[in-house]
Amino acid sequence: MKASVVLSLLSYLVVPSDARVLGRCRVAKKLQEGGLSDFDGYSLENWVCLAYFESKFNPSAVYDNLRGDYTGYGLFQIRNNDWCDHGKNRCHVSCSALLNPDLKKTIECAKKIVQGKDGMGAW
Q1: Beta bridge partners of 79
Q2: Catalytic residues
């Protein structure tokens, strides 16, 4: 009984109840459907890896930089100071649209970012 209570409590700590984390295969499918497989020379594997390291596959992730100079939004943690409505808005999108689990606006913006001079190094 005691062990089941401890395991139950641990499960609440490991995955927040309101988290909308996608699985790796679901992310890969959405990215492929969005045209990112081999987009601008980057493989689907590159994109899936980027999504994992930026947000752990959480399309609703928001990260405030400790220095306060930017906030990252969504699956790829797209920065507000250049890419969405709180900054230069080069993607012509609201930052909140980058938090949608359908990933359409996120993928459109990621394509614009990777076509820049830094490619995937922009992340």
Answers
A1: 72
A2: 54
User: What pLDDT, on a 0 to 100 scale, did the predictor assign at position 87?
Assistant: 80
Q: How many residues does the chain have?
A: 123
Phi, psi angle pair for 53, to nearest 5°: -75, -25
Mean pLDDT of 97-123: 97
CATH of domain 19-122: 1.10.530.10
How far apart are the C-alpha atoms of 101 and 104, rounded to whole Å? Answer: 8
Cα end-to-end distance, the chain, whole Å: 47
The per-residue DSSP string of 24-84 comes to HHHHHHHHHHTT-TTBTTB-HHHHHHHHHHHHTT-TT-EEE-TTSS-EEETTTTEETTTSS
Interaxial angle between packed helices 24-33 and 44-55, expressed in degrees from 0 to 180 and rounded to the nearest 10: 130
Q: Indicate yes or no: pTM above 0.70.
A: yes
pLDDT tens digits, 16-56: 434 589 999 999 999 999 999 999 999 999 999 999 999 99
